[in-house]
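Listing S7. Sequence submitted for prediction.
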Amino acid sequence: MKSKILIIYTGGTIGMKQDPETLLLKPFNFKQITEEVPELKKFGYTIDSYSFNPIIDSSDVDLHFFITLATLIKENYDKYDGFVVLHGTDTMAYSASALSFMLDDLEKPVIFTGSQLPIGMLRTDGKENLISSIELAAAKDDLGHSIVPEVCIYFESQLYRGNRTRKYNAENFRAFRSDNYPVLADVGIHIKYDYAAINYPTKWGKPLRIHTKFDNSIAILKLFPGLNKDYVDSILGIKGLRAVILETYGTGNAPNIDWLINTLHQRISEGLIVINVTQCYAGSVDMKAYANGAILEEAGVISGYDITTESALTKISLLLGEYHRNSDVIKEFKKNLKGEFSK
């Protein structure tokens, strides 16, 4: 049986084409996708499309968007073999991370992709990204199971685990990287899957479940030389704040300043959850490696290992929405739920 794929256009550069008269970019009708990308007809797949109305600039993505997208996939889950989500690149890593935690018992690919140039432009990267994403979403093994049953990002010949990926280049076609986890597939003349890196269900046939309860009582505190006490107090003193992503140096280090460590210890003792995430793109938090990391561990800061900020933020937001007790939130955060960190 030929594969059925649903393309979900949320917005972003990939879905734009230039008006021949005004030369302005405007979204094209995705119901006519095979006219814009006639190569898709050669697959022989059934390809349907759904467009958000209105479409969303990825800078405007919020929690409601995550819920709408996850619900849409849930409603169409039994009708299709895979999903390709067309999304602006700016917040794609946040959306892919969020969906990875929201979709439980996922057995089908949900592949995010986009482009740096509109699909209607001569040198666009959008066509290849779209064509390859559809082929990856449709790929099955001899038993009829999806080869990559994960939430992924595909860009410039590489398929990444969604919650391991970050945007790192605003101008190059290779806009994304996954420094702490291998690519799931390398797309060249042949598609080379890294089967050992892909998460597979322990048992096939479970129905998809989704989580939609978020709590955005969170903040990001990025450390920098010359950190100001008033700045730290203003963030840690936010009314109703439940969790903070602390972006530290190197392997999870912070300046050994009495007022900073005392403030963190005090707020943690009052119930604030603080997650240690390194500012580095590659490598992991290890608060035992240096004295300036150990002081954070002693203050009660929790290691995020090699998780990305995007993944930590969406994961903790969902856990806060699901659990009222901090002990439960922390217990679940320390679990490797969807392959988001190594430990």
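Caption to Listing S7: primary sequence and predicted structure tokens for the chain studied. The domain at 218-333 is CATH 3.40.50.40 (Rossmann fold). The mean pLDDT is 93.
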